[in-house]
Every structure is written in C-alpha cells, then in structure tokens.
Amino acid sequence: MPGRQSRRSVLAAITALPLTGALSACSGNDSAAVRSGSRSRSGRKGTTTITFWSALRGSQQVVDAFNKTHDDIQVDFEQIPSGTQGGYLKLSNAARAGNAPDVATIEYPQLPGFAIDGVARDITSLVGAGLRAKLLPQSLGQTTFGKRTYSVPLDVEPMVLHYRKDLFDRFGLDVPTTWDEFADLARTVRRTGGGRRIAVFPTDGMSQMAGWCWQAGAQWFDISQGAWNVSMADAPTRKVAGYWQRLIDEDLVHCNSTTSRLYDAQIGNGLVLTRLSGAWDAGAQMKGHPEQTGRWRVAPLPQWTPDQPALGTHGGSTFAVTKDSRHPEAAMAFIEWQVAHPDALKARLSSGASSQYPAATGLVSVGRAAFDRAYYGGQDIYRLFEEEAHKIRDGWVWGPRMTATGYVMQDAFARAGAGSGTILSAMRAAQDGTMPDLKALGLATTQHST
C-alpha cells in the first residue's frame, strides 16, 4: 500500500517543478491491481468495500452499474453538496478527523490545495501507463505536479461559443472568429434594441475569467524554482481585463451573476445571444430551457491570434484517492472504470441531458451517440468539442487556495459591475487577497505586481 506523504514532502514535490503534461509524468503499473483476498469493512472475505463522495449528477447510476458488474469491489456512495456549497468543507473536516472517503470528486482549481493539505494522496504509482495513454494530455497535466499525480481527470471542458442561431439569422449576424469581431458584434446587437446584449460578464465567474486569460497566455501561478510565483495582473490578463472593461463601459454586455434567476430570465427571454462557457454547458442549457430546442448552436471561441489558436477550460472534475483510504488499489480500480469504461459514461449520461467532454478520448463516441442533437439543430457538437479540446494551452497552474481567491474576485467583480472599480482592479484585489493564504500555508512565494 502506498505510504502517506508528509505535508512537507508534498510541499517539496509540488513546488519542485512546473506543472507537467501527462507524457512526462511517471508511469506506474499498467493497471490498478486489487490485492486478492482482502477483506471489506464489513469483513466478508474476497470483497473490498470502498466509500465514494461526489456532487456530480449521475454518480449514483455509475455506482449502481459498477456494483452490478464487480464482485471483488463494492462501492458505498454518498451524494454531497457541490464544493462551494459545503462539499469541500465536508471533505476537509472528514480528512482532519481521519475518516475521509476512499474516493472523492475534486474540481481542477481545488486540487492543488487538497494535495498540499495532504487530503489527496499521491497516486503516481497507481496510475498505469495504459490509463495515462487513454487521457487527453492537457487534462492529466492539470492533475500532475512535479511529476507526481494526485487525481485522475473525468472530463475536460474546452471553452466554446454557444449562440442563438435564430436571433443571429433574424438580425443578419455573423458568428465571430476573433475577439475584435466579437466586440463589433456586441455593438451591433445593442443597436437591435429590446435590451438584448451579446453576452453577460459573469460577476461570479472566476473560472470563466481564468479561461479567457488562460487562452490569452496568462500564467496566474507558476511553481518554478521552488516557490509559488503569483501574477494575476500579468500582461495577458491586463489585455483580457481591459477588453471586458471596454464592453462594460460601453454598455455592450450585461454584468451580473450567471447562477442567478436574473441570468436565467435573460437566457429565457432572448436577451443574451451568446454564452461563453465550457462544453458541459450545452447539456445544462438543454435541461434548463427545453423550450429553446433548435435555437442554439455551438462554435469555436473567438481567438486573439487566429493562426495560433489557443484555449483555456471552464469546468471539469477529477477523482482523488484520499489519505485515509485503506484500500487505495481498489479505489484506483473504481476510478479507472469511472473515467475510462464506456458503461460508466453511459450510466452517467442516463441521469439526464449532459454534454461533458470525457478526458478519456476513446469515450467521445459514447458521448456523441448519447447526446440528443435535436436541441442544437442536428449539429454534431461533440465533433466541435473534439477539435477544440486539442487547442487547450498546456502549462496552466491553479493556485493552492482558489476557492478563497474566487470569493475575493467575485466580490470585486460585483463592485466593478456596479461602477466601483474595474475588472483589472478586481484582479489586483484577488492577488492581494491570495497572498496571505499562501503565506499561512508556509509556502515560499513571490508576487509580480503590474
């Protein structure tokens, strides 16, 4: 059984080298072999019982399918709140008490923090070469620090442009391919009247802002030379912040939360013509507004430099084996089945409309077959997702306390939307609010203010 790493050793590993892609990560065995003859927590010989916590829709269906087809491993599942709604606090408290589940769902931005805190176990030796080869390198790169792997990606969500084709057709609008074209389109849309805007700047959108800056070449965090280097107002971020500030100043976009009833009404009433979000949002739109069937399409996100296309992500989850797991090999076997077996994805999709883009690229055809194309006018959106996923820029690093960073950013975005401050000042506030948390962790840090 892999040993538990001390906090100091995890800190050393996670700051030793920059985040690396999957191809350079250490390989373990070709599969996550489960020890024979192990006893479950209930004491039955030959069966290992593990626990699994997740907020992801469809997880119960996945567990049921796994338990029906596996005799040597059985999974006890608990549905928990989403991370920001209490799920991460529950996981942290359980880990402090020494009774965290064997397997937990952790989103990409929160993974570094759970690795540093010692909650997410180093599973480098458990992730076999066969599984690594199935995963999109950019996704596994987001779970690998200093050649040490701390979780396995379930999905990776390239940012795309969702747009109202019926309204584009009515007003004679062309789908923008560059951000300059998007700004011109925003001015045209405002002139149509009726309160319509091209998009919403999300005052609660730390992940969306990160995706836009990621695409532009920003590097908010890096862990080179043994320290966490923080620069949340670097040149690419300033470019993105200035761009959105101009759209806000010219009243070309709505500026509000995208998890609010207001936003839902804006989408429902056709007051927003595009959504700039991850691939998963196609399924969320289907579920939230079934009355808009046939009106939406998906296109590539506008680019800054079309001949050098790049993307960031928005959304996505991973599965970690926790430090408290007594059966890490069995936990890893369950994780591998969840992320790479067709039956697992079919079970998850059976829970309702979903457009998640699997990190295991061999499952793209499963998602494509399960997705009802009628909502998007027959468009094969998975083909587009597949093309866009390969544009994700490698090397992005999330910080150790992104939940706290996100709260500071969200508050500052809301003030900027109300005319008190700017998007750039919000980014600087987020950096200022991040540094005390990093120092409290005992991390070596540098920061670059611009």
Short structural summary:
The chain is α/β, with parallel strands linked by helices and 450 residues long. The chain has helices at residues 7-16, 59-69, 87-97, 111-116, 129-134, 137-141, 165-171, 179-191, 206-216, 235-249, 261-268, 281-288, 328-340, 342-349, 364-370, 381-389, 402-417, 423-440, and strands spanning 48-54, 73-79, 103-107, 144-145, 148-149, 152-153, 159-164, 200-202, 221-222, 228-230, 254-256, 274-278, 296-300, 317-321, 445-447. It folds into two domains: 7-156 and 316-359, D-Maltodextrin-Binding Protein, domain 2, CATH 3.40.190.10; 159-313 and 395-447, D-Maltodextrin-Binding Protein, domain 2 (3-Layer(aba) Sandwich).
Structure notes:
There is one protein chain. The protein is an alpha/beta fold. The protein has 2 domains: 7-156 and 316-359, D-Maltodextrin-Binding Protein, domain 2 (3-Layer(aba) Sandwich); 159-313 and 395-447, Periplasmic binding protein-like II (D-Maltodextrin-Binding Protein, domain 2, 3-Layer(aba) Sandwich). Helices cover 40% and strands 13% of the residues. It has helices at 7-16, 59-69, 87-97, 111-116, 129-134, 137-141, 165-171, 179-191, 206-216, 235-249, 261-268, 281-288, 328-340, 342-349, 364-370, 381-389, 402-417, 423-440; strands at 48-54, 73-79, 103-107, 144-145, 148-149, 152-153, 159-164, 200-202, 221-222, 228-230, 254-256, 274-278, 296-300, 317-321, 445-447. The strands form 5 sheets. It has a 5-stranded mixed β-sheet with strand order 2-1-3-14-6, with helices on both faces. Helix 13 packs across helix 14 (342-349). The longest helix is centred in the last third of the chain and has 18 residues, at 423-440.
